[in-house]
From TrEMBL:
This is Anti-lipopolysaccharide factor. It comes from the Eukaryota. One of its GO terms (biological process) is defense response to bacterium. It comes from Brachionus calyciflorus. Keywords: Antibiotic, Antimicrobial, Signal.
Length: 130
């Protein structure tokens, strides 16, 4: 389920409960609801969706995390290839998960090229795979 939809649904449910509680004078555990909502929102802000990615013959990994920026949901990404180098590519503030991870890979390639980690044949292999 899309995270944005999940947050909107959570807010809607809280609104319904508030309206319902005021009319029927039902005791509701607001403290527990706030704790549960905070845990859920916190979990969205942690690096997750670890994905192994084959990158020019190396096993690399990509991760994303969601966050709220200026009242909009955005995605950050990071990409690393420990068997190749200690460098890490990163991205911030993308509208989509795919955009975040793609930009993190581009950032990684730029850094690896600047540090002469990738050979010319590896760069040609990357160009051919696009």
């Amino acid at each position: 389920m899309n995270t944005k939809v999940l947050v909107v649904c959570l807010v809607g449910i809280i609104g319904i409960v508030i309206c319902h509680n005021e009319r029927l004078q039902v005791n509701f555990d607001w403290k527990q609801l706030a704790i549960d909502a905070a845990k859920h929102i916190f979990s969205l802000h942690k690096w997750s969706d670890y994905k192994e990615i084959d990158f020019i013959g190396y096993k690399c990994s990509g991760q994303i995390k969601g966050r709220i920026h200026k009242l909009k949901w955005v995605w950050d990404g990071k990409f690393k290839c420990p068997s190749l180098t200690a460098l890490e590519g990163s991205s911030r503030g993308f509208k989509s998960r795919t955009g975040a991870i793609e930009q993190a890979i581009i950032d990684f390639v730029q850094k690896a090229t600047e540090q002469n980690v990738l050979s010319e044949s590896q760069l040609n292999q990357l160009k051919a795979s696009q």
